[in-house]
Amino acid sequence: MSESPPCPACQGTYAYQDRDHWVCPECGHEWSGDGGAEAADDGLVVLDANGNPLADGDTVTVIKDLKVKGSSAVVKVGTKVKNVRLVEGDHNLDCKIDGIGAMKLKSEFVKKA
């Protein structure tokens, strides 16, 4: 039996092969098993207002009152937004805000919590 390669994301030793990919059960990272150069999964880099990199699932805090387009609602300063998702485009954070619902935010108006 051949040894499994260490996970490139967390260096975990319990990786297993699933068809033509390797999977790390510790961090959930998947990579191809061909041994060649692979494209980075982190191609999308999103920075908050302070320059800190954001990742899927992060919790952020709103740093400015934001008017909700098409509504009289306002997202107040200090509102915590949990489990953001990074997306391509001008509004690069996809999230749900309690009391308002699903919306997209610009990363320049949030800071990592």
Automatic annotation (TrEMBL):
Enumerate the spans annotated as Protein YjdM N-terminal domain: 5-32
Q: Which residues form the Protein YjdM C-terminal domain?
A: 46-113
Q: Which InterPro entries match?
A: YjdM, YjdM_C, YjdM_N
Provide the family line.
Answer: Belongs to the YjdM family.
Q: NCBIfam families this protein is in?
A: phnA
Give the protein name, as stated in the record.
Answer: Alkylphosphonate utilization protein
